[in-house]
Amino acid sequence: MAEKTDGFAKGLSIGIIMDGNGRWAKKRGLPRTAGHKKGAEVFRDIIRYCNELEVASVTFYAFSTENWSRPLEEVNGIMKLFGEYLVMAYDYQKENNRVVFLGDRTALSQRHQDMMNDIEEKTRNNTGTILNVAVNYGGRQEIVRAAQRCAQRVAAGEIRPEDIDVAMMSDNMYTAGQKDPDFILRPSGEHRLSNFMLWQASYAEFVEMDVLWPDFTRADLDAAILEFNTRSRRFGGL
Ligand code: FPP
Predict the structure, then answer these.
(1) pTM given for the model
(2) Topology (CATH) of 13-138+179-228
(3) Does the active-site annotation cover 67?
(4) Is the C-beta atom of 83 inside 6 A of ligand 1?
């Protein structure tokens, strides 16, 4: 096991699939929305901890393009919580976070969209941990969008088809200009990417943990980072 030393997480880029909220609530005989509420509190604390650790960026999967198929009550519950956390997101200005929302926000309420745009604008020049929040996000949809944006430039005669390369596609992702995730963390014992950061995850390590997201602690994040620090990454080389 790697040692926790000063700066052991500094500069890392981390993706987190917040999973297990429903099971956490069920175990307690509570409605699923209670699991999301506790999960959102953990989300808030883990952001603060990432700031302390000087993590470069952290991306949270809050709502996928597929999550709309859940019961309306649950979808509304998550969106209401998201709205409450958007109000609190103005704190990120003080905490020096740059906030970026990944996903198609046009499906969200106008009020939420206005706040998302405003928060992104107000935190644009912050130099601390980048906080990416994926909402109505799908990795495949993001790749399609990037391909369409490049195709539009070809159609406009600005570039040739062969000018489209990995760097140009990356520049057309929601995470343009950011470092790819070093590792993707999925609590709750599941072993899937579930349409999360498909483009950016090419060389990410996958760290699974057997803890439900609402029970996730700072010590669990330490453990995930230490696990990542034991991995030997070769990026296709030797
Ligand atoms: C996955 O658990 C979690 C979600 C689909 C929603 C995550 C949302 C929040 C934590 C709250 C709102 C977001 C923010 C950014 C404040 P699951 O419901 O799939 O759990 P299960 O697999 O146990 O059913």
Answers:
(1) 0.96
(2) Undecaprenyl pyrophosphate synthetase (3.40.1180)
(3) yes
(4) no
